[in-house]
Write a structure and sequence with these properties.
This protein is α/β, with parallel strands linked by helices. The chain is built from 17 helices and nine strands.
């Protein structure tokens, strides 16, 4: 296939975009490679090529392409954002910060850009800067943060004597993480109604507030205010130093009796994968439970927590009887932390979630957490090896 000409270049550009949009990244990469060879000054082509290379996991080439796009259009928000986003995903958060700031100065109202920068700010521990940007998730496709059809969103007004409805959003782990702030609002004098998915209803029913199960069609009394679940800490002005990490959930009594004797004494619960629909699941999940064999060989008795075991109240009853939870970044880790169970969390190096902050081996969110991080470009085997060695030393 010969080089592209001025006449054939536009058609090739459109074809590459089409393949990229359809998710055929190898075919798109092949055409983008020809496009940038024919038009090396096209920042748009380099940016698209970089996105495809990132999807293919060719990170070295992707970074070079993002930098070519940025060099060609250094003031364009989309070129700045492309490089910032790549640095963010690959763990170079402080390098990404000024690039995001420049991009946001150029396009201050772009909700996707604001949300990406909000994730970075929160991950860097700048909660004051991060929470307002994080509000941009509301109503965005793919965020799972659609507001309810109600008036009077809570903006942080005094809540004493007010009826406040907390609306669910995002994943189960997110809701477990922030339900502590529903308790805080109740303690401040609000009459809180916490709406949650059926999977969490029995677990949250133990909380000293009103819990309603979300259904396809549901009738609720009009509250004085409403808030999305993950808006509560920002509206409360929560700073990094305010996090205490103390447990705040307990196992329902009926589930304690249901699962009595299920877990052998001295067991370690393992969750080696999350939901496959998660955007970073290819990086956060282990290939199989067999990847944890070194932990078994170190003497740990493993209980697989990824098997269907009922709802989260059932899972909490099992977790309560474990010595330790070892999990990838999924809801099991939040459940263990909220129950006060020691938890060793395995974190990917690519697209690490903001809530685990930068470079720490502990978590201010949960006092019993210990974080085991992949080094840049590292696979899971070395991480599991470090986990197994830590277990071995603790039980020598």
């Amino acid at each position: 296939m010969g080089p592209l000409t001025n006449e054939t270049l536009p058609a090739a550009f459109r074809q590459a975009v089409g393949l990229q949009t359809a998710g055929d990244f190898p075919a798109a990469a092949a055409i983008w490679r020809r496009v940038v060879a024919a038009a090396p000054g096209s920042a748009e082509a380099w940016r698209n090529f970089a996105d495809v290379l990132t999807a293919l996991g060719d990170f070295e080439a992707a970074e070079a392409a993002y930098r070519r796009a940025h060099a060609a259009r250094p003031k364009a928000a989309w070129a700045l954002w492309g490089l910032a986003g790549f640095l963010h995903k690959t763990g170079r958060w402080r390098e990404a910060d000024p690039l995001y700031a420049q991009a946001l100065a150029a396009t201050p109202d772009d909700p996707h850009l604001r949300l990406a920068y909000g994730h970075l700010k929160l991950g860097l521990g700048d909660f004051a800067g991060g929470w307002p940007l994080y509000e941009s998730r509301k109503g965005l496709a793919g965020q799972g943060a659609d507001p309810p059809p109600l008036r009077n969103e809570w903006q942080g007004e005094p809540v004493e004597g007010r009826r406040l409805l907390i609306w669910p959003e995002q994943g189960f782990g997110d809701q477990i993480q922030v339900v502590r702030y529903a308790l805080e609002l109740q303690a401040r004098g609000a009459a809180v109604t916490l709406v949650c998915p059926p999977e969490l209803a029995a677990l949250f029913a133990e909380l000293p507030l009103k819990v309603a199960t979300r259904e396809q069609t549901m009738r609720l009394d009009e509250p004085d205010y409403w808030a999305l679940a993950l808006s509560a800490p920002g509206r409360l002005g929560v700073a990094l130093g305010d996090l205490k990490g103390a447990p705040y959930l307990r196992v329902p009594a009926d589930r304690q009796s249901k699962w009595a004797g299920y877990v052998p004494a001295g067991s370690v619960g393992v969750a080696w994968r999350g939901r496959s629909t998660h955007p970073n699941d290819a990086h956060r999940s282990l290939p199989s439970v067999d990847a944890l064999q070194p932990l078994r060989e170190a003497g740990a008795r493993l209980v697989d927590l990824t098997e269907p075991l009922g709802d989260f109240a059932d899972l909490a009853a099992i977790v309560e009887h474990l010595d330790l939870v070892v999990t990838v970044d999924t809801a099991v880790g939040h459940l263990a932390g909220a129950l006060g169970k020691p938890c060793w969390l395995l974190l990917p190096w690519f697209r690490q979630d903001w809530r685990w902050l930068e470079g720490r081996d502990d978590s201010p969110w949960y006092a019993g957490h210990r974080l085991f991080r992949q080094a840049p470009g590292e696979g899971w085997a070395p991480v599991v090896g470090r986990v197994a060695e830590a277990w071995r030393r603790a039980h020598a």
